Amino acid sequence: MTSPLNAPAAEGRWTPRLWGTLLVLCAAMFLDALDVSMVGVALPSIGSDLHLSTSTLQWIVSGYILGYGGLLLLGGRTADLLGRRQVFLVALGVFALASLLGGLVDSGPLLIASRFIKGLSAAFTAPAGLSIITTTFPEGPLRNRALSIYTTCAATGFSMGLVLSGLLTEASWRFTMLLPAPIALIALLVGLKLLPRSSRERDHNGYDIPGAILGTASMLLLVFTVVEAPQVGWASARTLLSFLAVAVLLTVFVQVERRSPGPLIRLGVLRSGNQVRAQLGAIAFFGSYVGFQFLTTLYMQSLLGWSALHTALAFLPAGALVAVSSTKVGAIVDRFGTPRLIAAGFAFMVVGYALFLRVDLSPAYAAAILPSMLLIGAACALVFPSLNIQATNGVDDHEQGMVSGLLNTSVQVGGAIFLAIVTAVVTAGAPAHATPQAVLDSYRPGFLVVAFVALAGLLITLTGLRTRHPQQTVVIAKSTASETSLETSPETSLEAERVPAGD
């Protein structure tokens, strides 16, 4: 069921309430991204103040990733079943409380627990917020514009997190934990007034409890295994057995979903080539960028001796370019289509990463670093909104939360996997005698991995350009017992699944 807010949107006019709704959702997405990047710069101060070891400090970051990446599938389907507005507001309230807790605790385990709770909350706000947008704005130019603004807020939050963390940590690391709390509280209060009420899906087949347990367990174990692998060893018995357990859980999960009358993920959505390319593109996009940011931050602070604020300002041109382009991307998508923009964005990323391989121990920022930052910023501006548009186009309202959860899971899992791989590559090449030049040389294979991941994303996207058709909806029919049917034969009752043409 679509929102009453659809009426003004459908006519091309955005009312103040519609703008307010979008801003509330953007605020939550901004906070999710802000929280991912902001804590990194504060880690040394946190470790010194709370007397935490390096391995414990890692879990301040990993705890958030574990909660976020592990529960996104459940969060997306919960939004469909229990109501998007309800799930979004409750999770946003929990996020605000966890932010307050994180800024007040004096214990490492409690801080890690607050970070896990924040990640868990984001796992529900992210897919619920995205599905509210896709069910409020009709598919086409208006939704494309809304999604371009929404995803730009995520990219801007990720970039600004570095700058804000550099500033706030100068006073106290606790401010980096506390900052999201008042913003989340304001968004919650405004959301109570503005967010459209959504009906719960009438699921006559009941809840897919086995699928929820298996899906959540497999994602939690996958993220945990990848995060821990660089420390315990990729070839260790623990890591190999964990990956084997993930494979078993996912195999059983797929079998359960194929037989469930009300699955957590309806596997039929993956019959769309555009959908598969969007998911794989999200993995490659965020995986390559997180790896690049991690290595570049180490390079700037450890080798060049730049301060946290100086490092953050070096990334600022990329974030600024994303922010400036926010209102333009939707119109570009309308004109050229998502596959072309995603391909162009990945091409920019590949060139930007390749150019960064030229850096040395005394780089001229304007010549050696700035071109890469501008190319990567342009890539983020094109790719991230286009992936969200491509993944949600042609999907029925009652499955928007599910697809949103799936896309966000791809983003987070891609980031966790490739960050761990890049870390392992750099660690394996770490020199015995750590001269600055030797350390820089050990970083280069990691930058090459980042570039190859982006290249893989480009190649995957190019497979969608082989046949270009006008954007329109076609029908893939699937058997169901639902009340809505498509008459294709006198004997069979079918439900129409809409997917973009060309697949």
From TrEMBL:
Keyword Membrane: yes
Pfam families on file: MFS_1
Major place of residence: membrane
Keywords, ordered alphabetically: Antibiotic resistance, Cell membrane, Membrane, Transmembrane, Transmembrane helix, Transport
Record region (Disordered): 479-503
Keyword Nucleus: no
Gene3D superfamilies tied to this protein: MFS general substrate transporter like domains, Multidrug resistance protein D
SUPFAM superfamilies xref list: MFS general substrate transporter
Compartmental location: Cell membrane
TM region positions: 21-44, 56-75, 87-105, 117-137, 149-169, 175-195, 207-227, 239-257, 278-300, 306-329, 341-359, 365-384, 405-426, 446-465
Biased composition (Low complexity): 479-493
PROSITE patterns: MFS (PS50850), SUGAR_TRANSPORT_1 (PS00216)
Superkingdom field: Bacteria
Domain Major facilitator superfamily (MFS) profile: 21-469
Membrane topology: Multi-pass membrane protein
PANTHER family assigned: BLR6921 PROTEIN, MAJOR FACILITATOR SUPERFAMILY MULTIDRUG TRANSPORTER MFSC
Name of the protein in its database record: MFS transporter
